[in-house]
Amino acid sequence: MILYQLYAFVLPAFSPSEMRLAKPLLALVPVLFITGVVFCYFVVLGPALDFLLNFNADEFNTQVRARDYYSFVTLLMLAMGIGFQIPVGLLAACRLGLTSVEKLRRNRRYAIVAIAVLAALLPTLDPLTLILEMIPLIALYELSILLAAALARPGPEAAAARRTPAL
């Protein structure tokens, strides 16, 4: 409902060409968010809670309060859902001309470091959870590059190369 209200507010401000770009990206937002939450619930949450509840278990009597548990789970799922929005942001940046597919490919190493920092800022408890959070974000970055390359507008160089015959 909130996304519908946001879309209804934002979409009338777009020109027809911007609307053709925005509608698929806006439709992708809830799908990626739900995918991120489901991935977090089924893949990341189990090892994270296992580590949290078993850390120094022989020295401490671990008791989990519902408020702390629900806030941790909610924050982790929300963060993973937002992190899964990488393709939308990168596709929009490529289509708006803020970056290019070549720059994304060339700066892949920096992106992986940024993803590692982002995953470390999430409620991460151990290296396994960090890796479990990084793997899909790196895969989404690579998928974004492939999608941006497939959907990229041909630049002036590509159009000129198509017009001139090869010798």
Topology at a glance:
Blueprint (H helix, E strand, L loop, with lengths): L1 H9 L5 H39 L11 H18 L2 H10 L5 H6 L1 H14 L5 H25 L4 H8 L4
Helix pairs in contact: 2-3, 2-4, 2-7, 4-7, 6-7
The SSE order reads: HHHHHHHH
Number of domains: 1
Estimate the strand proportion: under 5%
Q: Gyration radius, to the nearest Å?
A: 20 Å
Task: Please bin the fraction of helical residues.
Answer: over 70%
Folded structure, characterized:
This protein has eight helices and no strands. About 3% of the residues have low confidence. With 167 residues, it is mainly α. Helix 4 packs parallel to helix 7. 77% of the residues lie in helices and 0% in strands. The relative contact order is 0.11. It has one domain. It is flat, with a radius of gyration of 20 Å.
